Amino acid sequence: MQVLVLGSAAGGGFPQWNCHCPQCSACRQGSSRAQPRTQSSIAVSDNGEDWVLINASPDIRQQINANSQIASADGARGSGIRAVVVTDSQIDHTTGLLILREGLPLDLYCTEMVRADLSESFPLLKMMTHWHGGYRQQPISVAPDAEFTIPQVPGLRFEPVPLKSNAPPYSPHRNDYHVGDSIGLKITDKTSGKVLFYAPGLGELSGDVLAALAQADCAMVDGTLWQDDEMLRLGLGSSLGSQMGHLSVSGEQGMLALLSPFQRLRKILIHINNTNPILDPDSPEYAQVCAAGVEVAFDGMLIQL
Ligand code: MLT
Ligand code: MN
Ligand code: ZN
After folding, report:
1. pTM, whole model, 2 decimals?
2. Which ligand is nearest the CA of 55, by number?
3. Could you give the residue ranges of the DSSP H alpha helices within 67-176?
């Protein structure tokens, strides 16, 4: 399996267009070594030609153009994207579905909770039917032990792991958790037997998440914020990470501490907010992440499993 990081930043990207926090400003001015990053998305493939897009960010056009293995096609029009999976209905994971209109129809895999959000509060799926029929909806069951395959990428098996992370601000159940609001994915390469666990939004490590981490060879998990109150401290927002469904990286109960028992696992932080100091390779926080044996995802990162 090949795993390609298309976008490693959280919603807003890095630098965020209207943000003048020290880190966004330094990135814009070129005075830090922190690399710009686009919004949250990965793609997976069993052969390097046929790809499943996992989350469709508003930066998808730029992301495809930056990665020739996904941009290539046999005909006059086309790309390597054979199907799309979205793990939640957040803006940063779904607005790319509008951008992909020229390539419709496409199969779209999502849970019933996500389908409802994308049909009612943000009726994207209805709108897109006007482009060659739009998205062919393929339900993801969140029943225990549910799994699915995607016919266009037959070498991979997908298993949803329901996550306790919040539905988007526009959702009728933003603060009223429903199973399927957000899922992680366990993706197994049927030939190599290797397992990726992908969870860009993780509010807590439930038993299911711990089991997925124990089985995985590589985990790409929520690296949104260094500290729960980071946005408040910088005067940039009124919400704690925990109120948005993101477990912070540092602290006794933070992601680094919770990942530490998994010694065999390749650990990668992804979905990183522009305020998170781990974006700067010269920061002490970045050094702390490296010392813990954890990597920080970057756009274009390619992993072979
Ligand atoms: C989140 O995961 O909470 C998002 O990045 C929010 C957003 O896209 O605005
Ligand atoms: Mn997000
Ligand atoms: Zn910023």
Report:
1. 0.97
2. 2
3. 68-71, 91-94, 96-99, 112-117, 124-128
